[in-house]
Fold this sequence. Notes:
The chain is about 80% helix and about 0% strand. It is mostly helical.
Amino acid sequence: xxxVKWCAVLCLILFSSGCSVKFAYNNVDRLVRxxxxxxxTLDAAQKEFLQQEVKILMAWHRREHLPLYANYLGExxxxxxxxxxxxxxxxxxxxxIVWGEDIQMRVMPPTITLMTxxxxxxxxxxPEKLEEDNRDLEKDELDTPLAKIQxxxxxxxxxxxxxxxxxxxxxxxxxxxxxxxAYQPERVLWADYRRRWQADMLALLERRYEGEAFAAExxxxxxxxxxxxxxxxxxxxxxxxxxxxxxxxxxxxTLTEKQSKRLRESLENLSEDFSELARQSS
Length: 282
């Protein structure tokens, strides 16, 4: 859970803009502790452990990752305003995945330690908390007409684009909404995959006192999450990923001069923000 929440917070920061990036990053430690507390009621010793481990993680991330983000975004500001292919979009998100996996492995040891510190009483409420999350994840697509789901997806896509490029042109918006008709709902399938994985995770937590054996199995389970996707989710997810790449490549390749300037400035500002954050002490 700590691993998932940490990565989610970082994604939100990366796709923010302006001065909010620095503010958000400097408050990640509080956000992580708050989100862990959504699932578990920690005692004093566990809270102290979590606080110290998040502090260590933040120092590592600030030192090791932020310079990489700054350099990468600086390079993107020079390349993404002159036409973008689907393969370039794929390479960009592949890089995000590499960074995410790096963070995942760094977070794993303290996550395992925290799990071994939990009492039976603390774990008793965890299944219900996880299921609340799953229901919240799928609620926007349950019993919702397909056209509305696709329209909402297009709106979300548009909002992310406009954070970097400013307002989309009418033709760009029309293209996005037309292609959104190919989007297939995946949130219910995603929630079902999570339930399958969580069931095995909860069963494994019953053996959290088994030392190295538990640590090895927990790590293996975390790394094998895609094995729980199932054919339906895997197929739909891959189709939606390809669709997103196609749309992004088209939109980035049809930017007006004003939009290109806005995109370049947005990426440069993000690069500068990460550089400044990297220079600060945690």
